[in-house]
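testing teh design pipeline on a random one, pls ignore if ur not involved
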């Protein structure tokens, strides 16, 4: 009988008996030899099974579902490099289509004449807006013969960590206005105490990461008008609309927060949040071209043409930009309105249901972006905390984070739910049942539960 070919062993034996899968694979060294592609696939596939179910992750703001046509486009364009605009001119054109559409959505006075860019996420988009502030401030100070040392940026203590990174990395003093029970976000209260001639700008957040609340951009702009009238300081606003930039235009059209306010120089958003695209994609747009200094733009020739680039990253995927354009065409204004309204309906359903469970008090209800937070009522119990509830929900697959609020309220713990496209009303009903069940379990404990502070798992 002829000797069997070794490859026959790989093809006829059951998958988990193949060479490579019958042994434990090293996770710290590249293997010396090769492995059948099916085997390598199976090992990696099985590793990822240990992750949580993305649809049940109510901590993340990032999109976890797209339709089959989007999946097909993704597979067709995953090899495109967004930076190589000479090789992929149509993808570059699609990028421009998108940010011009956003400029119009955000009421730019001249959507086709302004400027914007895609980014790897809204953290990068925020940093580009901040860099434009810093450079314009430096130009003005030098023209006046004044020092460009010690620039500062004013924002809420509840800003997402990307702004703290920006100030750290680019040598800017962060001036954090503390939130309080009376002022749950930056609303202009005592803003004059934080503004001086070295202030490069103010950040206003449309959808605070901690709670989902909108900061009232119009009120902040009005306060800055008062400060300019009394001091002469003309301070611009960057709106960090990572979430709200793709919510407010559709379901709160009466709200004035965008380029309708002249003091708003730039707006950033996450395409991979309520833009409904897979990660990672961000956008930043300037109200007028003059607010992006030309000396921040680089021109490179080594990709085959004289290409302008303004980004912290160089090579980055173009597929998500294509997906954003697909969704703008696929959904249109009315489609986005339906999707975002459905998410808000689910958020309001959940927040109302949670408010009716005895131990809980809402911090906000999800009527801004479809995100809300709640806390334990004072004096309700000393036997368990919201961290214990988060742990109990995790055993059923739900990731619902509990965490302390920022400085000035750090002794106050809240729990938060982010409602995204894909959390249906039916699934939300199941979640509410599980919260009721686990709350009842905790209330009936005869001894206190151990509790530790845990990382909130914020996503920008």
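output:
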């Amino acid at each position: 009988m002829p000797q069997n070919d070794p490859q026959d062993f790989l093809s006829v034996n059951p998958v988990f008996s193949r060479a490579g899968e019958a042994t434990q694979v090293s996770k710290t060294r590249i293997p010396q030899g090769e492995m059948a592609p099916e085997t390598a696939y199976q090992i990696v596939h099985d590793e990822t099974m240990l992750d949580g179910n993305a649809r049940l992750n109510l901590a993340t703001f990032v999109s976890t579902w797209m339709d089959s046509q989007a999946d097909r486009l993704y597979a067709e364009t995953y090899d495109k490099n967004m930076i190589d605009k000479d090789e992929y001119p149509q993808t570059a054109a699609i990028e421009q289509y998108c940010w011009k559409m956003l400029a119009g959505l955000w009421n730019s006075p001249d959507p086709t004449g302004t400027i914007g860019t895609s980014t790897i996420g809204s953290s990068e988009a925020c940093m580009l807006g901040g860099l434009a502030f810093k450079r314009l401030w430096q130009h003005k100070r030098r023209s006046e013969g004044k020092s460009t040392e010690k620039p500062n940026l004013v924002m809420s203590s509840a800003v997402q960590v990307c702004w703290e990174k920006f100030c750290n990395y680019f040598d800017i003093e962060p001036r954090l206005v503390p939130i309080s029970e009376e002022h749950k976000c930056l609303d202009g209260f005592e803003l004059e105490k934080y503004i001086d001639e070295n202030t490069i700008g103010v950040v206003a957040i449309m959808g605070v990461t901690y709670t989902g609340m909108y900061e009232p951009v119009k009120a902040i702009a009005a306060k800055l008008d008062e400060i300019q009238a009394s001091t002469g300081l003309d301070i611009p606003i960057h709106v960090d609309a990572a979430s709200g930039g793709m919510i407010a235009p559709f379901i709160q059209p009466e709200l004035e927060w965008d380029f309708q306010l002249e003091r708003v120089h730039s707006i950033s958003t996450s395409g991979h949040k309520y833009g409904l695209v897979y990660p990672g994609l961000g956008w930043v747009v300037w109200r007028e071209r003059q607010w992006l200094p030309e000396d921040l733009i680089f021109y490179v020739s080594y990709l085959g043409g004289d290409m302008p680039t303004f980004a912290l990253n160089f090579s980055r995927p173009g597929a998500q930009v294509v997906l954003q354009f697909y969704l703008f065409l696929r959904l249109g204004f009315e489609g986005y309105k339906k999707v975002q309204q459905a998410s808000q309906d689910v958020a309001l359903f959940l927040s109302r249901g949670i408010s009716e469970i005895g131990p809980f008090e809402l911090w906000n209800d999800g009527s801004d972006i479809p995100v809300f937070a709640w806390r334990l009522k004072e004096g309700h119990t000393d036997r368990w905390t919201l961290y214990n509830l988060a742990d109990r929900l995790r055993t059923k697959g739900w990731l619902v984070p509990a965490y302390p609020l920022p400085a000035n309220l750090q002794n106050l713990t809240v729990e938060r739910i982010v409602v995204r496209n894909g959390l249906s009303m039916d699934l939300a009903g199941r979640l509410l049942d599980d919260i009721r069940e686990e709350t009842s379990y905790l209330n009936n404990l005869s001894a206190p539960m151990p509790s530790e502070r845990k990382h909130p798992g914020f996503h920008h």
